[in-house]
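Retro notes (design track)

What went well: tokenization of the new backbones is finally stable.
What didn't: we kept losing track of which sequence belonged to which structure.
Fix going forward: every design gets posted as structure first, then sequence, in one message. First example under the new rule, 216 residues:
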């Protein structure tokens, strides 16, 4: 159990601007009384302020096959990628296959062909083709106009924020404190394991820091 002197707590709470909160009532006690962080939390000082911090990891892998990148238009289509590549959110007019190599494209650019007489996709209307061979038009999609990585998408960020809020509420209930005494913040979203053959999903991990006050 990590124990800190009450005088340090009072100074830290003042620096945090929380002297009016119920947590600061301990400042009126005996300065020799110690305070400690709740079980599972570590005591940290940052800029003279004391806080209790717990890091929580959670799974963000896209385990629902029907779950698409709904917040990332025009990159709505979720695509598993093989060959140990990170999964992507694919532009709705792009046609990168699961087994295609993203490394083969130049700076994320993909050359697509439009058959003779076929209508252009809406994002290519008005653009000049890179080349025309026997009436078949070829277009180079600009960098990052074809896909974004799923672990960097707005969709997965929103899922992480929702999970972080649930973790925050769970800790409030466990500690039995008001909601304004516990806060959460997503600190990272990373692909920790890529799928080599495309038959299963990447493993994506989120991490959140939960903070609260030290108590007697």
């Amino acid at each position: 159990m990590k124990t800190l002197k009450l005088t340090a707590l009072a100074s830290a709470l003042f620096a945090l601007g929380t002297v009016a909160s119920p947590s600061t009532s301990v400042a009126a006690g005996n300065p020799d009384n110690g305070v400690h962080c709740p079980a599972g939390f570590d005591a940290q000082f940052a800029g003279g302020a004391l806080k209790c911090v717990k890091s929580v990891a959670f799974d963000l892998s896209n385990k629902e096959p029907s779950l698409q990148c709904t917040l990332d238009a025009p990159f709505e289509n979720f695509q598993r990628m093989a060959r140990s590549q990170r999964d992507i959110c694919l532009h709705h007019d792009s046609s990168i296959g699961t087994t295609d190599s993203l490394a083969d494209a130049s700076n994320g650019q993909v050359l697509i062909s439009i058959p003779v007489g076929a209508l252009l996709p809406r994002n290519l209307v008005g653009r000049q083709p890179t080349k025309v061979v026997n009436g078949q038009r070829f277009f180079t999609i600009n960098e990052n106009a074809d896909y974004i990585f799923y672990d960097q998408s707005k969709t997965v960020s929103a899922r992480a924020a929702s999970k972080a809020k649930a973790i925050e509420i769970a800790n409030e209930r466990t500690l039995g404190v008001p909601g304004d005494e516990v806060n959460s913040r997503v600190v990272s979203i990373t692909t920790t394991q890529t799928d080599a053959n495309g038959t299963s999903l990447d493993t994506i991990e989120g991490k959140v820091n939960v903070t609260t006050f030290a108590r007697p």
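Added context from the reviewer: Residues 106-145 form one domain.
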